[in-house]
Amino acid sequence: MNDKVQRRSELLVENRNLLHKDFFLENGLITVIAGAAFAQNDRTADPDRVKDCRKLLRDRQGVFSQVRGNNELIISAKMALSPNPELYIENLINIYEKSANKKSSRKFMNFANFIQVEFLIL
Question: What is the pTM of this model?
Fold first, then answer.
């Protein structure tokens, strides 16, 4: 097996385990996706930074926000990876609000906005 793939696979498992310890109530697949975000960037998950970003997300968005929902841990992980989490969530919210009036399924809008922010930030 390619060394890079082997290293990232081990990092994915390690990240999933680290995140699962602090976010054990989250869906198991969500913690895998959040861990994969860190592994993709060759970084070890930082649960404390993810918690800080989650708090920032919760402060900016209400409990019934479409931006939070099931995506909360994934967005928090991506914010934690960002050099500027505040700018990341601002961009995500701005893009979401601009596209909220268009006719499309709200569930898919979150992912579309998420992808747009990725291209904007990175």
Answer: 0.78
